[in-house]
Specification:
Structural class: alpha/beta
Strand content: 5-15%
Radius of gyration: 17 Å
Order of helices and strands: EHEHHEHEH
Distance between the termini: 52 Å
Helix content: 25-40%
Shape: globular
Number of helices: 5
């Protein structure tokens, strides 16, 4: 007798959608990146739809910024992007843990600019607040834009 296989579903959430211009759609929430109500609704919908987890990607620089682009080029590109402003994921997931019951709560957090103790403390807090539903997408940071936010000239 073979074991019953089960598909696991995760929702990769962004403020107003994954398409660069999704925020321009008439039904989109252009301010979704800074609206807790928006994320609450999306998380509860994913939970009702039997998704296993929600996930937020993150980085420690403005998305789309690059040390090799001119400042004017960045401003022009960022002015058309819908996901420049967004919550810090662990804070948002902690808030969502109160309005959801079963769905997993996962986020990207870099080990490059976070000390091990602080990471363990943050994820342990989310795990306790959520009743064991925390998940971590562990990454290292590699961009010069991220390095400059921590007083370094370039990523090492």
């Amino acid at each position: 007798m073979s074991a019953r296989k089960q598909l696991r579903l995760g929702a990769f959430l962004m403020s107003s959608g994954h398409h660069l211009a999704a925020w321009r759609h008439p039904d989109a929430k252009a301010d979704g990146g800074l609206s807790f109500e928006h994320f609450k609704q999306v998380a509860q919908t994913a939970e009702r739809g039997k998704f296993d987890m929600i996930f937020f990607a993150d980085g420690v620089s403005v998305r789309g910024s690059s040390a090799s682009r001119s400042v004017r080029g960045n401003i022009n590109a960022l002015s058309r992007a819908g996901h420049v402003a967004h919550f810090e994921p662990l804070t948002l997931l902690s808030a969502l843990s109160v309005v959801t019951e079963r769905i997993g709560l996962a986020a990207t957090v870099s080990t490059t600019y976070n000390e091990p103790y602080h990471l363990a403390r943050k994820f342990a807090s989310l795990d306790y607040l959520s009743g064991g539903r925390a998940g971590w997408n562990l990454v290292t940071s590699a961009t010069n834009a991220e390095a400059k936010n921590f007083n370094m000239n370039s990523a090492q």
